[in-house]
Please model this.
Amino acid sequence: MTGTVSERTGAPIPVLDIGGTHVTAALVDPATNRPLPSSVIRRPLGSDAAAAGILDAIARAALELPAEHRPSWGVAMPGPFDYDTGIGRFQGIGKFESLSGVDVGAGLRRRLAHRAERLRFLNDADAFAIGEYHAGAAAGHDRVVCLTLGTGVGSSFLRRGLPVHDGPQVPPGGHVYRLTVYDRPLEDLVSRRAIRAHHARLAAIPDGHALPDVHEIAALATDGNSAAVEAFRYAFDTLGQALAPWIDRFGATAVVVGGSMAQSWNLIHPALRAGLVLTGGTTARVLPARQPAQAPLIGAAHWAQDTASAAP
Model:
């Protein structure tokens, strides 16, 4: 086979999925639309480290990938982040604070040297949604809302496979976490910290005692513990109520749910479905993600391959 890597249309697409505690690097095969199993590398990442340390850790994971790949990388990154310029905007959110104002794109390209001509950034929830659209539960839906439930509520409103961030049919920026419900920010009622706090009140756990984490509360709920059952029911019924008018406006035919909390599908699905009362004639199915781990990697690969937005 002749030609440079950038000219080989069959060469794999390098991607990074950057989270608060881990970074995943992989090569996605454009023929199968899946990460090459032997290429997926997951490494710990300290989001409270200095900027140079964070960038060094991301680059180390990227450089572990085999070198024969395309020169354009897809990079899934949590917000707030300027995805067009590659500059961090993290302030007051408890992670990646040292990257605020830092040109992450330039820093990574310098560390990756000849391995990266371009880095194409996208929001991590958008990457998940695009991956589910091309290879998962969102496939076949012209308009779909995808949620990632973890520490908070990530979201993406997709139209024909592309995220919609502006306009009257979506919340501000296309982000559900910016909504208010009962005159409070949504994540005060629907998030890891919210579920833990609500369960503690319902279970009358004294102040100063260690609180069970969400996976422990889910186990209690599965066993029938009434406080745990109600903590889950309230959170996801509330999420459904907050989402319903936007599902109507956007005309979504499906809501696809991923993230670490989605493992408790037996608790989340009935509560979310009960709260999601649609009045605009829309019928939207609530579906679990089919590619919960691989979707962000697949979505980042499509972004690198299909879009013209590149960090300078």
User: Anything to note?
Assistant: The CA atoms of residues 8 and 70 lie 8 Å apart.
